[in-house]
């Protein structure tokens, strides 16, 4: 059997998918959860900046409240 460029391309694609597919959705380990709980890991780490953004949103949209509350507005929390 001769090795063709098509075989090399298929082998390369298989190698890349094996290397990158293994670490896609691994849950955090117990020793990593402490790092994830730090305040700097949150999306809104700066409370003053969050208040400013909410003030701008309230001014533009003329709406307030409902930040971080579960539910879809249908009353089925």
Sequence of secondary-structure elements:
HHH
Mean pLDDT: 74
Q: What's the quaternary structure here?
A: single chain
Stretches where pLDDT falls below 50 for ≥5 residues? Answer: none
Give me the count of strands. 0
Largest sheet: none
Structure classification: mainly alpha
N- to C-terminal separation? Answer: 63 Å
Beta fraction: under 5%
Helix content: 40-55%
Shape: elongated
Overview of the structural elements:
The structure is a single chain. The chain contains three helices and no strands. It has 77 residues and is an all-alpha fold.
How does the SSE layout of this entry go?
Layout: H1 5-21, H2 33-36, H3 47-61
Summarize the structure.
This protein is mostly helical. It is about 45% helix and about 0% strand.
Describe the structure using short key phrases.
single chain; 77 residues; 3 helices; mainly alpha; 47% helix; 0% strand
């Amino acid at each position: 059997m001769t090795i063709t460029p098509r075989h090399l391309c298929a082998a390369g694609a298989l190698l890349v998918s094996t290397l990158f597919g293994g670490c896609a959705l691994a849950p955090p380990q117990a020793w990593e959860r402490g790092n994830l709980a730090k305040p700097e890991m949150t999306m809104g780490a700066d409370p003053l900046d969050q208040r400013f953004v909410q003030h701008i949103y309230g001014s533009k949209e003329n709406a307030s409240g409902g930040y971080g509350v579960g539910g879809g507005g249908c009353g089925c929390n």
